[in-house]
């Protein structure tokens, strides 16, 4: 309870949107439905990566408008799209799936108001909803526009039915990424709700929460913050400080503050949102686990490894109790803990966990699945770190660890290469039929893993040579290391040409790392023999590195 004052202080603030007063969007009730779990690759920068569980929740925030005897149910996509670093993702497929999940529900209106306009409104809304869920957005837009017109004429300009019609059309525009068209409609809906129910009604609070969702997808963080703070204030007054819906808004506000660099307030809100769920008996729920995962990531990014480890162990305990080791959810959670332990220097426990994860994956996944290759890469890195610790104590044992890591890396490379070759064959087959292929996540994951494994193999060769020749004055050329790094570069160029992957920053980052290591390898070779043996032009390397650094610079990405 000691964190509650942080939220209380926030909700006492006054706030105003820059251009237009924002009201709310609707009274929301959460409908617990089934959820699906997806596994995706999470990129944390050049040093690390992990697998991540993405939950497509079937518990959307449904808006319930009441006007007399009328009960109008519709919805807005409320899945928060936030960075792994907390980065924001959005895709037409995810948007349509989310809209269907919470979707524009069929109207069941028992209103005593009935005329030709209200009848048309019902027909246009239901037909538009069906077309929307089929992905026929252009046809759906026409019907939603007609529904809005009929709602205004049949119910009046300030009736909640008009707010629902505005919402439906706004949701369609949001899915189409026509944000300039969507925003005025959301605001109109909010204005109607405030006039109908008052500015402090719970429907208004839920509306502000959902408008915050709309803003955060566009990275309009300040607007999102204002909306969430308004929603939090209303929910605190109406629902109380222990309500899970209050905790939901608190969590999202905390996430926005984290993206704005306000770490202390952010952590207090996220921690308290977790505590409310735990106090309410939802400590093992998907939502609570998701929040704990994000909190652990925040701790990791700020290098607070002890706190990150504590949270991750708690998550693993929940996974083991609820799902056991026959679930990939548990495996991925254990892998996350292993990576934290690796960063903290607890290599023995990290290695044991990763080995257990590998055994589980070999049982649960098909042979040569890309997750198995990634798991092996993690184990090889731990072995290399073990070697580094042993080199001052026992050189022979240090070399043995490197040889163990080399064998594991070669297997990881084989699996990743096999996965890429399969993707390329499928891509060529698609193009042979005149269709346009789309590069899937698995392809990008496999390519990143291959580049990382090749780069690690190059560094391993360098470390091994240093151990074997530590007493020699002259630094001899390392062809094994150079071969691995050159293969890393040639692999990147091959897939840039054939699969058009140049636009993916996580792939570029790995390519850049290989270039820098190759430059360092050749730049440190000062003898005439080593200079003659190199197969690269050092100036070309420097130019390519500079070009990529410019492309990946944060300032350039913000402009884009």
From TrEMBL:
SMART domains: TPR. SUPFAM superfamilies: TPR-like. The keyword Coiled coil applies. Keywords: Coiled coil, TPR repeat. TPR repeats lie at residues 205-238. The keyword RNA-binding does not apply. This is Kinesin light chain 3-like isoform X1. It comes from Prunus mume (Japanese apricot). The lineage of its organism: Eukaryota, Viridiplantae, Streptophyta, Embryophyta, Tracheophyta.
